[in-house]
Amino acid sequence: MIQSDIVVIGGGAAGMMAAAKAAAEGCTVTLLEKNAFCGKKINITGKGRCNMTNMKPWAEFSQHVHPVAAFLRPAFYSFSNEDTVDFFNSIGVPTVVTQGDRVFPESMRAFDVSRALASHLEDIGVNVICGADVLGVTKSGEDAADGNAMRTSFIVDGRAEAEVIASAAVIVATGGLSYPTTGSTGFGYEIAKSFGHSITTTFPSLTALMPSHYDRDLEGLELQNVGIILYVDRDLIQMEQGDLNFTDNGIEGPIGFRISRKAVHALINGQKVELSLDLKPALSLEKLNARIDREIASLGSSRATLGPAKMRSLLRTLMPAELVAPFVNAHPELNASNLAGLLKEWRFRISSYTGYERAVVTAGGVNQKEIIAKSMRSRKEEGLYFAGEVIDMDCDTGGYNLQAAFSTGALAGRSAAQRILNSRSGESE
User: Fold this and answer.
1) Which of 387, 374, 394, 418 has its CA nearest to residue 12?
2) Residue 38 and residue 115: Cα distance in Å, rounded?
3) What pTM was estimated for this model as a whole?
4) Burial annotation 49-60 (CB, 10 A radius, 16+ → b, else e)
5) pLDDT confidence of residue 239
6) What are the backbone dihedrals phi and psi of residue 315, each rounded to the nearest 5 degrees, phi first?
7) Each residue's pLDDT tens digit, 36-79
8) Which of 114, 193, 223, 385: disulfide with 412, CB 3.0–4.6 Å?
9) Residue 158 has what pLDDT?
10) In terms of Cα–Cα distance, which of 239, 182, 128, 97 is closest to 388?
11) Helices and strands in the chain: count of H runs, count of E runs
């Protein structure tokens, strides 16, 4: 049987940070990763560039955290976005801040982030075991001679014989269900349930929304500075402004992802979901009509005499040329009188969404109420901790999810280590 103060299950952002911070406190740490190397999901974040964090202060940052931002607050203040930047700078990853306060590695290569983390773990003596398929976690009893009552069993590289690690603490950082090709299976939920935890309903978030009768001519179009409104059962639920992409999976991009959480949740509940796209959010209806009048005049026409050919010429002055045909096809009632209104309110009925296979993050997970926010320790078992996406906590796109992973991982690692060190010195937690 292997002996280790702390076992970390999962070698993603949260798990590697947890291992790093626990080892820095002076504890022996073993990290178990099922893939052949750590950081596989980190390598695909930010389209391969890795949006490491976002530099907004907590008051603004917290608005991008779901379902309850207050849960993350202690972890964020324990290891903030500034701490994240300082940490990566210290291990050889210079960073840059870009539009929207987003932070990337200066190289714009996600691999540099995961590689630096892996190298750091090696430098500080973390025992990293890759190809490790964890079978389960149990507790042997309070009377373990060395205090290592937690038992983690696993198989390495498909071998028939299982190995067991005895530890005083286990940190579950297995991620959720999104991007299963990176090793996300939801196994962390099973570990949590085995210790009496409840799992809030999980569903894909930051994912594509598919409109009914989707016009495939929209695929590949990227729209900048547009507005979008989410309606559920005709009630206005959310408004966003920014960039939007049409892809083979439907509506994506920054603002598409931002509304996807509530949209997917509503679809799962059988509710009617609609999006209203505003192609001219900077212009009021009155100002847009005035602009349309000027453009029509420049074409040598009037609203009363505007024919189909000149209507298309007019539309090309108001939107990207590739968008004209889909816009016309979507609005058979289009005319000079209602054009401004349709530009401000292009309706899409949403019929489905992309599942975990391409969703950026999993919403739902281990119930927040069953985790102590100030330490990430389980309320059900003293030797059990959670970090990252396995928890019922997800964030908007823009660096928020990785920061949540780093913050909860750092807090879990430090808390587990301090509890062990305190118990050895006879101090109370």
Assistant:
1) 387
2) 8
3) 0.93
4) bbbbbbbbeeee
5) 97
6) -60, -35
7) 999 999 999 998 999 999 999 999 999 999 999 999 999 999 99
8) 385
9) 83
10) 182
11) 12, 24
Q: According to the model, what pLDDT value does residue 425 have? A: 82
Give CA–CA dist 133/34, Å, rounded.
Answer: 5
- Contact between residue 393 and residue 365 where contact means Cβ atoms under 8 Å apart: yes
Q: Which of 214, 204, 345 is nearest to 279 (CA)?
A: 345
Q: Contact at 8 Å (CB) between 226 and 243?
A: yes
Distance, in Å, from the CA atom of 52 to the CA atom of 17, rounded to the nearest integer, reads 13
pLDDT for residue 429: 47
pLDDT of residue 426: 75
The answer for residues whose C-beta is within 8 angstroms of residue 321's C-beta and 6 or more apart is none
Cα radius of gyration (the chain): 25
Q: What is the DSSP letter of 51?
A: -
| Beta-bridge partner residues of 232 | 235, 273
Token pair 């964890």: residue = 134
Q: Which residues contact 114 (CB under 8 A, 6 or more apart)?
A: 37, 38, 39, 40, 42, 43
Beta strand 371-372 with 377-378 is antiparallel
Query: Which portions of the chain are predicted below pLDDT 70?
Result: 141-146, 427-429
pLDDT tens track for 411-427: 999 999 999 999 988 76
Say what the pLDDT of residue 342 is.
98
